[in-house]
Design a protein that fits this description.
With 380 residues, this protein is mostly helical. It is built from 19 helices and four strands. The longest helix is centred in the last third of the chain and has 30 residues.
């Protein structure tokens, strides 16, 4: 039996749309939503062009929701923060009690951002770290250093460029669940590289693009670029072992203890494979020697005295900062070298390192973290 259904059995889509559009309640709601979105976009634009001290309540809320990615605190902010001047005066206690921010990493992120905006008002401009939003850190940056498995934890704590610049070994273990010491060192060395480039993402990307198809500038190589190099030197059967290993160019160059044995251990090349290890050794010698020599020459040119590459002392760090469009180099305080000693567990897993010294990541002179006390940064 064929069932015949009259068109009248269904409401006309035209009639339905017409009814929907003609409904005063729905029309009002649609207009209200559109106006709200437009206002929010306008407020975000004010964030980019107006000093924080001149912000009104709506601008503060738009900044917190859109720029800082913290919509969960909007209601408390609307009730308590009525201007940018009030925001500039907030303490860590105010953020916890007034805005209900119990997550200490979120509080630190806000404090660092507020300090950055305070310095911007004195004519310094926002730091380059302000351009590194938390999605880039949790996805692109973690993938580049070969540790994408920690992405969710970085997302949860909304780790952006400013917050990343202050992370310590204790932060990584307590808040971001990075328990392996070698992985902690990998992240700290990745952060150290960002400091050396003054958190200039465009510069980092440009240097990586320049060496994508040539074996130069090892310092900025991502984990994926090292895997590509291993395939190019006919070690593709071992290359996959570097996935999630935390080995990247800064680890290879900045840790003077990193050598052929370190790489062979990470790749799972057993000691019995003498000829394979010899091949790796020859290829790595040329690559590492050139990269470390280049770094030494850069330091000599910048500082005037050659640094010592040793386990006990670190390379003298130089920061590149932009002043009136020009590059100036600032010599930073010599700090203990992060060491990435590898120990084989089943030939592949990297779980230990010489952790005889805690690494304090160098801060640029215009970094918002420099004006926060040690108690602020460790108030966790």
């Amino acid at each position: 039996m064929v069932l015949h259904i009259s068109p009248a059995s269904f409401p006309s889509s035209t009639d339905s749309d017409s009814d929907s559009l003609s409904s005063p309640g729905r029309l009002s709601a649609n207009l209200s939503d559109s106006e709200e979105q437009l206002d929010k976009l306008q407020q975000v634009e004010l964030v980019r062009t107006v000093p924080m001290s001149q912000w009104r309540a709506g601008t503060v809320q738009a900044w917190l929701e859109v720029i800082m990615a913290m919509p969960m605190y909007i209601r408390a902010c609307a009730e308590n923060i009525k201007s940018g001047k009030v925001m500039l005066a907030l303490t860590d206690t105010d953020l916890e009690a007034g805005l209900g921010i119990s997550n200490s990493m979120h509080r630190r992120k806000l404090r660092l951002a507020i300090e950055d905006y305070r310095q911007a008002e004195s004519g310094h401009g926002l730091s380059n770290a302000a351009d590194l939003e938390h999605h880039w850190v949790a996805q692109a940056w973690l993938n580049d250093v070969g540790l994408p498995q920690y992405s969710q934890f970085f997302h949860t704590h909304l780790v952006d460029g400013r917050l990343l610049s202050t992370l310590t070994r204790a932060d990584l273990e307590k808040h971001l669940h990075v328990s392996k010491k070698a992985h902690q060192s990998s992240l700290l060395l990745g952060i150290q590289l960002l400091h050396m480039l003054n958190f200039n993402k465009e510069l980092l990307q440009a240097r990586r693009a320049d060496c994508e198809n040539q074996n130069s500038d090892l310092l900025v190589w991502s984990c994926q670029r090292i895997i590509k190099w291993l395939r190019d030197i006919d070690l593709k059967e071992f290359a996959g072992s570097l996935q999630n290993s935390g080995i990247h160019g800064a680890v290879m160059v900045l840790d003077p203890s990193f050598n052929t044995d370190s790489m062979a251990t990470a790749l799972g090349i057993s000691a019995s494979k003498h000829m394979v290890r010899q091949h790796l050794s020859e290829e790595m010698k040329a690559l590492l020697a050139a990269a470390r020599l280049e770094l030494v020459e850069q330091e000599v040119e910048t500082v005037g005295t050659p640094p010592t590459i040793s386990r006990q002392s670190s390379l003298g760090r130089s920061m590149i900062s932009h002043i009136d469009g020009q590059h100036s180099f600032r010599q930073l305080k010599v700090r203990p070298q992060v060491s990435f000693n590898l120990k084989s567990h089943g030939g592949v897993d990297i779980t230990s390192l010489n952790a005889s010294c805690e690494v304090a990541t160098p801060q640029p002179e215009n970094s918002p973290a420099r004006n926060l006390s040690a108690a602020d940064l460790t108030n966790v």
